[in-house]
Structure to design on (135 residues):
């Protein structure tokens, strides 16, 4: 009986493991020729409405060579990016603000399709950011 309970607990723990749930999100360091690869899907502009100015868009652009750029954000400037499993890393620095900083945003990829990206900060996984693929 104890063995059966232990096996059930191990099964539940394994199913809660994010790496088990996101087997389709593999590490990418180079663009794959597979059009469905995660890095290939991430390349491009990802935009969302600017709060209070919904007709205007802001976001970031991820380039094939690992360079990242801010789109319509003038104080938070993205420098480079990398994806590993279900995590997107965005290196950035700030400019034009009182407290200048350099850091890395570590973002959990919750959904990635050809036209939509849903991410959250690891430190606040319940707050989701939704981006749509831009032109």
């Amino acid at each position: 009986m104890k063995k059966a309970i232990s096996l059930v607990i191990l099964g539940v723990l394994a199913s809660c493991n994010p790496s088990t749930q996101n087997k389709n999100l593999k590490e990418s360091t180079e663009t794959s020729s597979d059009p469905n690869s995660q890095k290939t899907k991430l390349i491009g502009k990802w935009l969302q409405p600017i709060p209070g100015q919904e007709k205007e868009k802001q976001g970031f652009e991820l380039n094939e060579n690992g360079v990242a750029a801010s789109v319509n954000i003038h104080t938070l400037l993205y420098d480079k990016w990398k994806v590993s499993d279900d995590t997107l890393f965005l290196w950035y620095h700030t400019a034009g603000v009182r407290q200048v900083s350099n850091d890395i945003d570590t973002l959990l990829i919750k959904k990635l399709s050809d036209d939509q990206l849903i991410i959250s900060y690891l430190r606040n996984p319940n707050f989701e950011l939704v981006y749509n693929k831009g032109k």
Remarks:
- The mean pLDDT is 81.
